[in-house]
Design goal:
It is a single chain. By secondary structure, the protein is mainly alpha-helical. The protein has one domain: Farnesyl Diphosphate Synthase. The protein is built from 14 helices and two strands, in the order ααααββαααααααααα. A two-stranded antiparallel sheet has the order 1-2. It is globular, with a radius of gyration of 18 Å. The two termini are about 25 Å apart. Bound molecules: 3-methylbut-3-enyl trihydrogen diphosphate (IPE) (2 copies) and magnesium ion (MG). The site of one 3-methylbut-3-enyl trihydrogen diphosphate (IPE) has 12 residues, from helix 4, helix 8 and helix 11.
Amino acid sequence: MDVEERLRQKKEAVERELERILSQEDSLLFKAMRHAVLSGGKRFRPLLAFSSGACFGVSQDVVLPFACALELIHNYSLVHDDLPSIDNDDYRRGQPSCHKAFGEDIALLAGDSLLTLAFEVMAQTSLEENLLPRKEKVLREISHLSGVKGMIGGQLMDITLTPEELTEEVFHDLILKKTGGLITASVKTGALLGGAGDSELEAIGQYGQNIGLAFQIRDDILDTAQEADKGALSRPNYVSQFGLETAKRRLHNFIETARGVLDKASLESEELHYLATKLLELENKEEK
Ligand code: IPE
Ligand code: IPE
Ligand code: MG
């Protein structure tokens, strides 16, 4: 089976499990949660978790609940990010954003519920006794990197910093938190479940950080190329801040560094290499 097919199957597995997790009730809240999650994301973070897990000998079944939890956290962050008080985006994945479809009050609660559900899913996962300390480490990593020191801290920088304050160093710090936080948590999840040692964990963390930087810069390049959503508030964008040439150069550099880190640490993973290289493609508009 080639790498694309393997990733396609992993994406289907996460899709099926998310569908199952979100079908426990037919309430308005669950309708809003389903609207937010089951609307066609790339499932990039679950794929990173599966691929990193495979690299450390962890089976897909063991990674699955954590992969779903990471995707639930990602989707909660998007629901809240789109709210009028944050980015004020009317559309997400080509469909009305959660608050446009269900109202701000329900969208706020749907986001809260997705975040809480993510931790419930992980807490409820039963693992063999010897894997329990690894699960604890995963929980620590995911909560840390999606919280104030990670994703939420990055969102704060995104909404408060002025263009004058955004030197390249500060901008990279913003991205490492806002986007790199959850992406790094995703690859670390697979590695921790596989009992990776300190140096391997360090390497996979560096891969995650470089992929996080590349991912957001690519997103900013694609956002700039597409016609901006009229309602959306303007937020820091790598291209408007540093220009398209610099953005493309940095994108290449971060991908190269990510791939180099894997090689240097002798982490052989066709999938992790593939997911990195895929970020160099700038044509595919639907798969932003
Ligand atoms: C969008 O994330 C927000 C960013 C961090 C740039 P994705 O590009 O992963 O969104 P989906 O889940 O595939 O829609
Ligand atoms: C969203 O970042 C990142 C998080 C929700 C943490 P952006 O605002 O740059 O992404 P889009 O453009 O809304 O997808
Ligand atoms: Mg946004």
